[in-house]
């Protein structure tokens, strides 16, 4: 993020503000105010909250930081739509976001409109302000991140309704396939003293830097993501009943949940696999990448396949060396066997905005790539996504690796 | 309920169907679809669910029982809006009622309209059918019961929003006062071989009968309900810090919750008491009856006051003997020290409708009277309300009793 | 208890102090210090704790109340061995009693010996002190109550060891049989205005009085307790799979525990029923009374059998009217459908000793009679035992009742 | 471990079998059978269990693997004393180890004696069997690991007894001090392409290899461990009240536990710090290294001090480069900011013995060095200890690092 100044100085925003903001609204087209208020678990927020929170981000970190900040739209929003920025003060309980019938969706949409007007005025007034451009860019990246979460969370909310409602007839999941490569096809990646991390020539989050050297042994990386068909073979081979395939905490997770398949999968009376999607309940596509598995499931599958998960350094190095590997981006986030920890020399940004990433660097594992739900322009080789190892509700899958 | 046949035979419904049903809609006037979807805890249902469930009751127990039942409006509603009737089949999880954005409020209102039309047609076609009248009457009493719950539950839902929204400017809580009698004023009630339970000359739930004999010693009953002012004295005297005043389970409840006052009470910066009401946050009225206390708090207060709670037989006997005792009805439900158990000779009705009351006869205590939120015409001396001893969110207070 | 003075005044203790105390030691004969420290759940205390706590009771309520009390043996015991007497001060956490390796069993036995010497000296010095006799009698009754709990708790502790150890070759469970009467044999008991509660001519706990009038309708009471064979028929008929047989909370208990049989029952490879007993794992005796069932199981069985549980008033009235009914005492405690609540006019004793019973009068159901583990001389028609409806680890069974 | 063959082939065991085994018994000298049965939480096992489990390890992995294995001492021990080796079959529940009064301590000691005799006979019979020597060495290392756990666990067990018992008058904690270096004294460590991991010339666990290259930037490492005095300054500066110092999960841990100081610390009436030790409650030694802190506390302290935790590669590299740095070994385990994950090329050993380490490689952080409770001869630069970030009951502290 401290790299943003340079970039923005070179000539304004890399994104169209109005276009990014409009896409959030496009996502709720066809949904009711009731749909936008759903909260099915503490981890997943209501869509109305996402719409308000991303707006609050601009109001708090951009507008309120101006020399002559505009009047705060509604002081209560500061508490209600703060996600986790302790530096900003009191927050509303995460698990109770679904209890906010007030402000209404209509009021939140009006809040968005007012902030958009204020912000676009500021951008028009000070087109060369590179610090401003940095913060606005961060806000837009943040908005895009929440656009993916809106779909991820809505899918979970809807999955709890026995009516299994559909978001759209054409859902993002249907757009991707794991391709035709053999499950056993690997590409050899040379090792040595490599560099990973974001370059300074474009936007990146602070956690993607500093760019730094790592030593890698040569390795093999799967030519495509593991598919639903591959994963069915694992299940059929007793994958969920064999403790020797699982990490110890993973086996405990399996036992407690009596897990038998990825999240959202079910079998019909004829034992055919179906999956709940953003287009409702659908027959499972065996050629699509397996999705909604957690780290434990990914790791157990890899062990069963005589392989392993790549590290994040291996993944990033390969993504630059072999950018044509199928499904690196746009299919599923790919679990790595790297813990989410700071890179050597990492320094969080100063102030409340610095709470963005650093304080979450514990108890989470890194996912790389991007998914079918990731907005266009929000993918890059250095991007570090991260979730706890038990999380299933993200669009998360895996790609295998092996030692040479 | 088996008494209903006789009564209905004597000439139709004791209530106006359209009028009772309309009152449910009147309660949500001014609320948004988002408001009607709120569910703040498993015990409290969304208003939309109440509206649908009471309608489902008519569809399932009246219309579907006709010789030529109409087509079911939507088979999924049978699962979604069944509360606890195991005999009817699968149910949707109580704690997840707030996750039903579909059907929408609009669809539920349309469901109500269709069932109302069907039912009113049936009533018009068979005006002399006493079995039908019995079931419709039960359905209307059931609807009235849910009308009180709608207010009770909405109050809890709204209390979880930091904005503390108001339902109406004029709220039911404001309409009642505990009166002017001294806290220490008691009326002597003679004992002997008494009868309690519902007579057969009007509607009553099955749990109110059979009418039966009980032996009572003479006793004293408080002339009014305990007021907020009385309860403040208890708090000021360390009521919530003195274990000797509490039942053992009550003291554990106090300790775990760090309870210090009735639900919805808070103190402002000047230590003045405020209470969240259906009209929003309001200064506490010291003359109003104390409300939203559980059995433990009621019992501790009584012990502190050198008194005790009445039994339900004492309460009912007194309510018939001294019907002019202040606040028996329409202020707060009054905790008794009687467990909710079957009367001698009690038999639940046959079939699924018989699940109404009997199976809840454990782990609950009886409350008598009625509250400011009870619909007109839904109060009677034999009425047995019941909740677990820790429940606070009902409009529940207390009236003292003493031995002679 | 306030009746004790009269009784003791009439000539000393109804029990032999040394004999009652010696029986507690007899119960641990053959057990190791490790056995005596086991605590398998918060509800069940280590045997070492029982031995110390009953001694603490004499030290605290008898010796410390003397005009010239002896020096306290060890001040730390006051905290460690106080069960729940808030009036006495700080207590050690119930669930952590099993973490007290110090004091050792040897030290506890020495504590017993010292208190016994002090107490017997006092009794010898003041043979005519009726207040003293009252308190000592209470202490001995208390000790006897804990003697039953020692066996009850040890059975639970041992049941958690996969080795399924035996306490003795001849266990109390083996001594009783439900008799030969038909399951369907009932005795008619006349009703009317009856009296229940303890007479003043012998020891009783405060909760057994005051003796008072109740009105009873005539009813039928089963001639014997329900047997294991009877209960097997209930299980075979799908008793644990049919929600319509259960109270609502009972069905939730069944579902959460996936309960399928009484506590301690298991089936061998040939589907023969075995039960863990104080003599280890044994074939189930079909003629013995069913034991270790909770209120929910008792109530479901009764409903399945077309019967009901008696109330405690019915039970006590019948036990006096028909004392020869089989198995009233000495087999299993018999669940009643009465909540444990104060009798009319009940007043707890003054001071800390008054915490004995009154504050537990909520959320518990009454059991009547006595069990195979109850010490001789500790049974009487007015005795009120009480446990929460889900408790199974007591020696609890049932006897059926029906309306006439 | 696969390196063991070579080493053992070079001439027998690096440890004296009898001496290592005897030290386990020395640890329980002066303790009662009751002390040895305590289990204060699921993570901490009874000492009796440790004694039996380490013996079971020899019986199962050494004796039972012989061509002509001796008869199993007691088949039930196979279940009772298996810790987590799923490959070996059924296990007893970890949290219920404290419920095993049988076998008694005496029986466990006899079990040890029998296995020792069998094993020493085997060692005498086949002195040149390198595979045998490998397994026995692993068993002895395993025993030493449990010797540290015996002290760690006993400390926790005893801390739950209000009597605060002492294990010995002279406790291990008293033997070490953080030294006299300034808290701010750092040693510069050069970076570059380094190697870490165990060499093949002595015993190591499988998780310590393979030895492999890592790239390190030059850095500063604290000359001594952080002391109690240093940590008191952190507390005095509001360390436990300032969310900006904590990882997000760490702050949640602080809030839920209302943590205010390291485990076992308490303040007396004069606000002097005391600590519970294996010698009972003692005044806190400000010069001793801070101990019993978790990763969250270590990380927050480092942030407060303007420093950070070292990675495990940095620690190991420095420990070889600067072996005279104070307190690397024998004081406290030092938290690193490295997750416990496999080294490149890591392969678990085949068979059940391979469950030793690999399956725990998730949700844990690495600690390096060794503590005052670690047996002599059980420390080495490549040793990887690991615990979840919230664990406090180990002898864990920290050493600071900084970027150059």
From TrEMBL, chains A, B, C, D:
The keyword Cytoplasm does not apply. It comes from Pseudomonas abyssi. Residues 18-150 form the DinB-like domain. Keywords: Iron, Oxidoreductase. This is Ergothioneine biosynthesis protein EgtB. One of its GO terms (biological process) is ergothioneine biosynthetic process. InterPro entries: CTDL_fold (IPR016187), DinB-like (IPR024775), DinB/YfiT-like (IPR034660), EgtB (IPR017806), Sulfatase_Mod_Factor_Kinase (IPR051043), SUMF_dom (IPR005532), SUMF_sf (IPR042095). NCBIfam families: egtB_TIGR03440 (TIGR03440). Residues 189-322 form the Sulfatase-modifying factor enzyme-like domain. Pathway: Amino-acid biosynthesis; ergothioneine biosynthesis. The lineage of its organism: Bacteria, Pseudomonadati, Pseudomonadota, Gammaproteobacteria, Pseudomonadales.
């Amino acid at each position: 993020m401290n790299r943003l100044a340079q970039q923005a100085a070179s000539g304004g925003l890399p994104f169209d503000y109005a276009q990014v903001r409009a896409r959030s609204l496009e996502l709720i087209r066809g949904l009711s105010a009731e749909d936008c208020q759903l909260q099915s678990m503490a981890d997943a927020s209501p869509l109305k909250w996402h719409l308000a929170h991303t707006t609050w981000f601009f109001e708090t970190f951009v507008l309120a930081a101006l020399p002559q900040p505009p009047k705060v739209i509604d002081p209560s929003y500061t508490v209600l739509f703060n996600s986790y920025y302790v530096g900003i003060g009191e927050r509303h309980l995460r698990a109770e976001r679904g209890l906010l019938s007030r402000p209404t969706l209509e009021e939140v949409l009006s809040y968005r409109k007012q902030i958009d007007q204020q912000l676009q005025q500021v951008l028009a007034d000070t087109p060369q302000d590179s610090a401003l451009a940095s913060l606005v860019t961060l806000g837009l990246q943040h908005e895009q991140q929440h656009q993916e979460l809106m779909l991820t969370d809505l899918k979970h909310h809807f999955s709890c309704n026995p009516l299994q409602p559909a978001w759209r007839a054409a859902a993002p999941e249907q757009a991707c396939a794991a391709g035709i490569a053999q499950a056993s096809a690997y590409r050899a990646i040379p090792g040595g003293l490599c560099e990973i991390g974001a370059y300074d020539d474009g936007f990146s989050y602070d956690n993607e830097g500093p760019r730094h050297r790592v030593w890698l042994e040569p390795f093999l990386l799967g030519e495509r993501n593991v598919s639903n068909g591959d994963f069915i073979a694992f299940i059929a081979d007793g994958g969920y009943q064999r403790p020797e395939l699982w990490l110890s905490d993973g086996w405990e997770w399996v036992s407690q949940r009596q897990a038998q398949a990825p999240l959202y999968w079910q079998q019909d009376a004829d034992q055919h696999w179906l999956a709940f999607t953003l287009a409702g309940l659908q027959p499972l596509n065996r050629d699509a990448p397996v999705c909604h598995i957690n780290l434990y499931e990914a790791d157990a599958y890899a062990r069963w396949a005589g392989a392993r998960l790549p590290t994040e350094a291996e993944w990033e190095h390969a993504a630059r060396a072999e950018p044509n590997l199928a499904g690196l981006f746009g299919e599923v986030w790919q679990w790595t066997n790297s813990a989410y920890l700071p890179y050597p020399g990492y320094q969080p940004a100063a102030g409340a905005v610095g709470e963005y990433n650093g304080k979450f660097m514990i108890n989470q594992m890194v996912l790389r790539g991007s998914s079918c739900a990731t907005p266009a322009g929000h993918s890059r080789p250095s991007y570090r996504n991260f979730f706890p190892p038990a999380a299933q509700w993200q669009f998360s899958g895996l790609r295998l690796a092996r030692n040479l």
